[in-house]
Amino acid sequence: MKNNDKIYKMSFAKVYPMYIAKAEKKGRTKEEVDLIILWLTGYSKEEFERQLERQSDFETFFREAPAMNPLRSQIKGVICGVRVEEIDEPLMKEIRYLDKLVDELAKGKPMDKILRIN
Description:
Blueprint: H1 5-8, H2 12-25, H3 30-41, H4 45-54, H5 58-63, E1 78-79, E2 82-83, H6 90-106, H7 111-114
Antiparallel strand pairs: 1-2
Helix pairs in contact: 2-6, 3-6
C-alpha cells in the first residue's frame, strides 16, 4: 500500500474540481459529476458538502461513505492503463471506479448507462 499512500492521503476536495473540469470540457455539468459521486458513495448532498469542507482525504472520504452502491461492481474497463475489475486493493478500486465513471461522463455516455440503471 506504500505506493498508493500519497493518493489515499490526497484531499478529495482538491481533486474534485479536476473531475468537474474534465466533465465540463466535454459539455457535461458539475451537477452530473455530483450525481455520479452521490450514486457511488451514498452520500446526501449535505454530507458530500461536509466532506468537501473538511478537506477529507480519499481514504476518509470512501471509508465514511454511507452506502457504496452495489452496482459499482458492474463498472468495467481500463482507467489509467489498468482494468478496474482487476484491481485487488479495495480503496484503489473505489478511487478507480469514480475515475472511470467521470471518464464515461466526459466521453458522452448517457447518464442512465453510467449509473447502470438499465
